[in-house]
Write a structure and sequence with these properties.
The chain has helices at 17-24, 47-66, 78-89, 102-117, 147-156, 198-201, 206-219, 224-227, 240-244, 250-256, 264-286, 308-316, 322-334, 339-352, 357-367, 373-384, 399-406, 411-416, 436-441, 457-474; strands at 3-7, 29-35, 71-75, 93-97, 121-125. By secondary structure, it is mostly helical. Helix 2 (47-66) links the parallel strand 2 (29-35) and strand 3 (71-75). Bound molecules: flavin-adenine dinucleotide (FAD). It is an enzyme of class 4 (lyase).
Length: 475
């Protein structure tokens, strides 16, 4: 009888424990992907990630085809899809790799019981993280709330399990009925095709993920510890979209950075970033309300502004602060933003515009190719100061100084805000201070070809600190 391998956030053959178990069972394999409806507490995938999902599924299907099989696509509630497929195929076992977002966990727990009641064997495996989130706990058995002790615990836990190679042969079962067509899911944008530049940056598929990792080890990892903060430098791995849908496993990344001759400080720092991803999942797993509730309930009384004109200026990259605008436009064009700039734009939304972090989280969820329920929520709360182990609210990034420090030559700004590209380095991060003659020479008419700042940063900062002391004192 066949065995069903249900692919979810693990769209790869490499280091795939569920697939490996299916192959070693000796049963013919049915490879399945289900497009599940948005369920309570989760929202549907964002538009940018749907684009990535489409291409990632297409690539997975090609890899399966190369081994003589195919990916069976179906949409609906998992229990309904599986029930139909179990009866049509006479399969008696379903395997999958675990997911750790709370709504996903709830679905899987119910499903396992349902299947077992029907006499179907249901088995799940680890794979999305280096360590199971239930494994790393404090001495008193509680979850970590602070990153540094979490990292130490991760180090003490020893090396994560070594990745397993992709199977070279799979015996597939034939499934009657062809399943659904990927194109019928309409995951790609049509008019306008706002994703037209995505394909220049993102190459889907697990082979592309491995290539990107190798390129990063060869050319980016050396110097990572210092260079990773400079958005114009190609110094980070850009592996997050691959990790988010599981085109590569963190264990594979960990393994490949083992035994290289690169400086230990760079390798450790890179692994510490992977550990931020783990920590975010640890928080989400233990505190399921992370994506929508202030971790620190002192912030429940915070007086956020509605600010729809300000929110619009932020989303479209028209705030008048070049580093903010460059980041928000990189997001439009590439479905991605450099980490340093994510912190700057998030701080600007929350503290300069006093707009609720949840609106920013939602915008990112819809526009990032790497949108991730754990990392996105944890990072937004971190910047807001409302999260576990958060950066304090009173740390307000100055967008001009951040730009000057981390984009000193203005290359990043010039790439994404071309209308001010002709400004010299002195004013590239502060066009509003440039003398009229300088602006004129650079072809800039402030308030017309490029906006004047929508808020005065110094005044906005004072206002934010006042709003913060109101909730602080009330606590
Ligand atoms: P690298 O520097 O090469 O890091 C390697 C990997 O470590 C990344 O691919 C990522 O998986 C992980 N990582 C790195 N930094 C972090 C971090 N701060 N938190 C968690 N994991 C991290 N990351 C997402 O994957 N999805 C999100 O939706 C997301 N939203 C964010 C929202 C805000 C407001 C902020 C400040 C950060 C967010 N991040 C998110 C974290 C981080 O910005 C990205 O993971 C990183 O920019 C991805 O680029 P990279 O792969 O080149 O990173």
């Amino acid at each position: 009888k066949p065995i069903i391998v249900w692919f979810r956030k693990d769209l790869r053959l490499d280091d795939n424990h569920a697939l490996q178990a299916a192959c070693s069972s000796g049963k013919p394999v049915i490879a399945l992907y289900i497009r599940e409806p948005a369920s309570d507490g989760t929202s549907a995938l964002g538009a940018a990630q749907e684009w990535w999902l489409h291409h990632s599924l297409d690539e997975l299907n090609k890899s399966l085809k190369a081994l003589g099989g195919q990916l069976h696509l179906a949409s609906g509630r998992a229990i309904d899809v599986l029930s139909d497929l179990l009866s049509a195929s006479l399969a008696d076992t379903v395997v999958w790799n675990r997911r750790y977002d709370p709504p996903g966990i709830a679905i899987d727990e119910r499903l396992k019981l349902d299947l077992q009641e029907r006499g179907v064997e249901a088995r799940s495996f680890a794979g999305q993280l280096l360590h199971e989130p239930s494994r790393l706990l404090t001495g008193s058995g509680t979850p970590y709330r602070v990153y540094t002790p979490f990292w130490r615990a991760l180090e003490r836990a020893g090396e994560p399990p070594r990745p397993i190679d992709a199977p070279t042969k799979i015996q597939f079962a034939s499934v009657s009925g062809t399943g659904e067509e990927l194109s019928s899911w309409n995951l790609l944008p049509t008019k306008p095709n706002w994703a037209r530049e995505f394909a220049d940056i993102w190459h889907p598929g697990e082979d592309a993920a491995r290539e990107r990792l190798q390129d990063f080890i060869d050319d980016g990892l050396k110097g990572y510890k210092t260079d990773r903060d400079f958005p114009a430098k190609p110094s980070t791995s850009m592996l997050s979209p691959y990790l988010t849908l599981g085109l590569i496993s963190p264990a594979r990344i960990w393994e490949e950075t083992r035994g290289t001759r690169l400086p230990v400080a760079d390798i450790v720092h890179f692994r510490k970033e992977l550990a931020w991803r783990e920590f975010s999942y640890h928080l989400l797993y233990h505190f399921p309300k992370l994506p929508y509730e202030n971790w620190n309930d002192r912030f429940d009384g915070f007086e956020w502004h509605n600010g729809s004109a300000h929110f619009h200026a932020w989303t479209t990259g028209m705030t008048g602060y070049p580093i903010v605008d460059a980041g928000m436009r990189q997001l439009w064009r590439h479905g991605f933003m450099h980490n340093r700039v994510r912190m700057v734009v998030a701080s600007f939304l929350i503290k300069d515009l006093l707009i609720d972090w949840r609106r920013g989280e939602k915008w990112f969820r819809d526009t990032l190719v790497d949108a991730d329920p754990a990392s996105n929520a944890a990072s937004w709360q971190w910047v807001a100061g409302s999260g576990a182990d958060a950066s304090p609210f009173f740390r307000v990034f100055n967008p001009v100084l951040q730009g000057e420090k981390f984009d000193p030559d203005g290359d990043y700004v010039r790439e994404f805000v071309p209308e001010i590209a002709a400004l010299g380095d002195k004013y590239i991060h502060r066009p509003f201070e440039a003398p009229a003659g300088v602006l004129e020479k650079a072809g800039i008419e402030l308030g017309n070809t490029y906006p004047k700042p929508i808020v005065d940063h110094a005044a906005a900062r004072d206002k934010a600190l006042k709003a913060y002391s109101a909730v602080k004192d009330a606590a």
